[in-house]
């Protein structure tokens, strides 16, 4: 999208946004999700009341953080970020392999999103619509207001706003499925946000160009 609007310079905000997501947001999200998965209390034999249930076990915070950092979705992008920072040259066969994976990532993400949406019932409620409104309207609107307040103009203003107006990544739903947290709401928000972005992104592009 940005490549058609701003040429090769449109790759810069996408790269910066991807680095922020995979290096900062994804590890923090995994850690919080891991900390939120507590063991359910188990009732003692012969005691059916809530007061008689066993107390929940203490959470191993250090273990949860270490387990989250061990996941490939965290350490692989971080390794790539470190290699990029230090300008490490990699073999051509390695670069070609990564390029092949990168070219297929968008199609695989769409296919994964379709499979997830097909497996769960789409719901419409206040939570879902609030998530869609925040992602499609509030987030790019705040970015636009902040960039204008700081005195930035085109092309940086348009690149930042359009990037923030893009639909949410499929990883959000994948994490919801993995940790069994708000799966119908997340899947529904992904679908409505993706469909709604056709209008909201068009509106922001029309305002900025």
Verbal overview:
This protein has helices spanning 2-6, 11-36, 61-70, 72-85, 92-119, 126-149, 156-164, 171-179, 183-208. By secondary structure, the protein is mainly α. Residues 39-46 and 48-55 have low confidence and may be disordered. Helix 2 runs antiparallel to helix 4 (72-85), helix 6 (126-149) runs parallel beside helix 9 (183-208) and helix 8 runs antiparallel to helix 9 (183-208). The two termini are 14 Å apart. The protein is globular, with a radius of gyration of 21 Å.
Produce a short descriptive summary.
The protein is an all-alpha fold and 209 residues long. Helix content is 72%, strand content 0%.
Chart the SSEs and their pairings:
Layout: H1 2-6, H2 11-36, H3 61-70, H4 72-85, H5 92-119, H6 126-149, H7 156-164, H8 171-179, H9 183-208
